[in-house]
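Thread amino acids onto this structure.
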């Protein structure tokens, strides 16, 4: 559900009427009537006496409150008004909350529903205000759409992005809008952040519902959620500022993998290596594998969804680039020609570049030691090390009982629903992630034997594959196409390919802003088509001329998407169309050609 933006309005007679309706409805709750009326009076007096305007969304939220009261919903609307006061004092432009609608439904138990809230220092009253508001919006939208509740709310000063991670367990991101252009973002990109962190969490800890069932009090789920999400957020820090994806990241698709194209000869060598890795396990079990070269996927034996999760974790923490760098590997702001400038600018203003992420990491450490237990933190930075034997080791999961040998990390595969041990081998820029069934590794001796078999059988093939890939490697600009800035997405296979980040930073701001708006329209069109007829693929193409005369193009066909910017293009639409045809035929096997 979306709501358009409008100009601010003063607190007029309509909103005063809504306020009076709230007071009248509260008369059935004598213990709160006086306080409720006082809050409304203060809200009116503050805005009118100071000559200020009230956000259009204030009236809208009050309207929702009245509607739900009239429909006898079990909601505490004092929280709505507390939220309106809290937002005027709020200094955080970014919030994330995770809550369970099945919990905290009785008076005095409201805190039970909160599983995670960022920023951590927000008082419980403020947390309940935000979550109470979100719960009210979800309940309200379910009246009109029971099967698909709210996804996005665009208010005057905030964007609310909703994601139902599990049945009745919601993740909500609140972004405050500012006057500068940097506050333009794509809500689907923000939702993909929520989806990504939930998928990664499930891969290491299992579902939130299973944790809540295992420990109904909620401490187990919270003790794992807080350090995990806080560690995840460290990758978005630039200096002391949390930099979420904006319009500058429009040529990137989170939740997909970037693949490496190899020749037929190299593909045969890779397939031979995969076969060898599959039989490196002990006994009759079969290993699975994911192979990366630099930050690009070479091969996988997992499902697209599990591949995406392993690939994401590898790029964040396991590849040579991740091991050697403490900077964010996702944002375009930290790649390419402008990376140094951006980092230096923030350093001069706020101190060392890592200050923000280090503070968040310390918060995660304190959050992960509830009940005296050290919770494994898979996303903790600088905790993986390459040994002399080429295997990566970490002490994140602790050590074997009575031994100094680190416990092998385990992950949960969504498709097969089985636990697998992670064994990572790295040779130069080749990272081999081997997934061994946890049931086959009974003890430390089993792990040592598995590593020994891998070295004896697969090591020569690993050397051969790495050598051939390096020989054909063209550097980070390998997939640059002169004159084009592009993003190609294969949604069915969770694969994407894009212009190198350093090339994307050369685009003008007008081009990126236009592309961001166009992608939002594409997201809306896809959502409408999916709800109207999920089995029917809606193909369409849009070409827009930006203010700087650049052509911005989006084309969707047969489950694939092409997003493109042509800045140095001829003025005719025919030229732009022919440019898309040429690109499609040469680099996409004609997937986006008109015929």
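Threaded sequence (595 positions):
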């Amino acid at each position: 559900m979306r709501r358009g933006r409008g100009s601010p309005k003063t607190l007029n007679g309509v909103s005063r009427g809504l306020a009076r309706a709230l007071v009248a409805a509260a008369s059935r709750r004598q213990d709160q009537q006086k306080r409720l009326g006082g809050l409304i009076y203060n809200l009116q007096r503050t805005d009118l006496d100071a000559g200020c305007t009230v956000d259009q969304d204030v009236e809208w939220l009050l309207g929702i409150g009245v509607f739900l009261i009239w429909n006898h919903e079990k909601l505490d609307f004092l929280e709505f008004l507390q939220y309106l006061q809290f937002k005027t004092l709020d200094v955080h432009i970014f919030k994330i909350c995770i809550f369970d609608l099945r919990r905290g439904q009785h008076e005095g138990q409201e805190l039970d529903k909160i599983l995670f809230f960022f920023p951590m220092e927000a008082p419980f009253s403020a947390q309940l205000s935000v979550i109470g508001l979100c719960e009210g919006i979800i309940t309200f939208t379910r009246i009109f759409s029971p099967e698909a509740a709210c996804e996005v709310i665009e208010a005057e000063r905030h964007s609310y992005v909703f994601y139902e991670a599990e049945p009745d367990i919601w993740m909500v991101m609140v972004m405050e809008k500012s006057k500068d252009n940097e506050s333009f973002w794509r809500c689907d990109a923000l939702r993909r952040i929520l989806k990504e962190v939930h998928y990664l969490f499930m891969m290491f800890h299992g579902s939130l519902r299973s944790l809540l069932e295992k420990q109904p009090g909620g401490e187990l789920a919270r003790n794992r959620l807080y350090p995990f999400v806080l560690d995840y957020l460290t990758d978005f820090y630039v200096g002391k500022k949390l930099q979420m994806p904006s319009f500058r990241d429009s040529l990137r698709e989170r939740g997909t993998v970037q693949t490496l194209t190899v020749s037929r000869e190299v593909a045969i060598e890779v397939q031979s290596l995969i076969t060898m890795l599959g039989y490196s396990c002990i006994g009759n079990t079969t290993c699975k594998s994911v192979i990366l070269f630099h930050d690009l996927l070479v091969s996988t034996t997992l499902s697209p969804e599990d591949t995406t999760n392993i690939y994401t974790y590898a790029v964040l923490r396991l590849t040579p680039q991740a091991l050697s760098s403490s900077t964010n590997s996702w944002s375009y702001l930290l790649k390419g020609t402008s990376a140094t400038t951006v980092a230096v600018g923030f350093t001069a203003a706020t101190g060392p570049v890592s200050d923000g992420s280090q503070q968040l990491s310390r918060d995660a450490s304190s959050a992960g030691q509830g009940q005296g237990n050290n919770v494994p933190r898979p996303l903790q930075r600088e905790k993986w090390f390459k040994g002399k034997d080429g295997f990566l080791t970490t002490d994140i999961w602790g050590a074997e009982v009575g031994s100094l040998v680190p416990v092998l990390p385990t992950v949960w595969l969504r498709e097969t629903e089985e636990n697998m041990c992670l064994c990572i081998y790295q040779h130069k820029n080749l990272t081999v992630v081997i997934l061994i069934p946890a049931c086959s590794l009974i003890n430390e001796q089993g792990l040592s034997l598995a590593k020994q078999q891998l070295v004896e059988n697969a090591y020569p093939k690993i050397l051969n594959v790495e050598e051939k890939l390096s020989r054909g490697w063209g550097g980070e600009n390998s997939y640059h196409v002169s004159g084009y800035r592009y993003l190609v997405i294969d949604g069915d296979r969770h694969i994407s390919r894009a212009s190198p980040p350093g090339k994307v930073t050369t685009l003008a701001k007008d081009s990126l802003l236009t592309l961001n708006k166009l992608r939002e329209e594409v997201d809306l069109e896809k959502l409408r088509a999916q709800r109207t007829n999920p089995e029917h693929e809606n193909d369409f193409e849009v070409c827009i001329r930006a203010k700087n005369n650049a052509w911005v193009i989006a084309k969707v066909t047969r489950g694939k998407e092409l997003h493109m910017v042509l800045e140095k293009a001829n003025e005719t639409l025919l030229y732009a169309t022919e440019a898309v045809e040429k690109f499609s035929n040469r680099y996409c096997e004609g997937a986006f050609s008109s015929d």
